[in-house]
Design goal:
Number of domains: 2
CATH architecture of the largest domain: 2-Layer Sandwich
Radius of gyration: 20 Å
Helix content: 25-40%
Number of helices: 6
Shape: globular
Order of helices and strands: EEHEEHHEEHHHEE
CATH topology of the largest domain: Threonyl-tRNA Synthetase, Chain A, domain 2
Structural class: alpha+beta
């Protein structure tokens, strides 16, 4: 992969090798929080200050000490894992569900099939990702119906992401805001 300066900006343009499974990781680690000047010299990007987290932000990033409203989270986790098992033939080894006022986020670990692992080891990561994306796209209606049924909210958007080397799948649902009482 090579980085080429883009005019007079502090950003670099990446040209990853499409056959390199680590290209995206290399791009992220090589460009942030650094920028490259016109000569290609790496320097800290002033737009990315090096600060520590505010204590409130650090506390918010830790796992909650209590599991308030855990029943809905558990129902959502069980339902999504069941969909994977029923329609993909294998479920994740773990599922963590996060609820925000207008978001439902699932972080699923494991669950790649031996066939997918074999393809990944043979350098066919792109094909595995494309097959997963196609499956997730075909499951969109089932996922949305499940989330809407359990949350009693309307799903505005559904997004999926996969990272095979970390064996992670993310399912994210953006919910319509709740109507405000008149």
């Amino acid at each position: 992969m090579k980085l080429a300066p883009t005019g007079g900006t502090n950003q670099a343009e990446a040209h990853p090798d499409p056959g390199d499974p680590d290209a995206k990781r290399q791009l992220c680690s090589e460009t942030a929080p650094f920028a490259h000047d016109a000569r290609g010299t790496q320097r800290r990007d002033p737009a990315m200050p090096d600060h520590t987290l505010h204590p409130d932000d650090a506390a918010a990033m830790r796992e909650p000490l209590t599991h308030a409203h855990g029943e809905l989270r558990q129902q959502l986790s069980n339902a999504v894992v069941a969909l994977f098992k029923q329609y993909f033939g294998r479920g994740p080894t773990s599922c963590r569900t996060y609820l925000e006022p207008n978001l439902v986020i699932f972080v699923l670990a494991g669950g790649y099939t031996p066939a997918e692992q074999t393809l990944f080891e043979a350098g066919k990561w792109y094909e595995v990702r494309q097959a997963r994306i196609a499956w997730q796209d075909s499951m969109e209606v089932r996922f949305i119906d499940t989330i809407e049924g359990l949350t009693h909210r309307t799903v505005k958007a559904f997004l999926s992401a996969n990272r095979q080397d970390a064996e992670l799948t993310i399912e994210l649902f953006v919910l319509e805001p709740e109507p405000t009482p008149a």
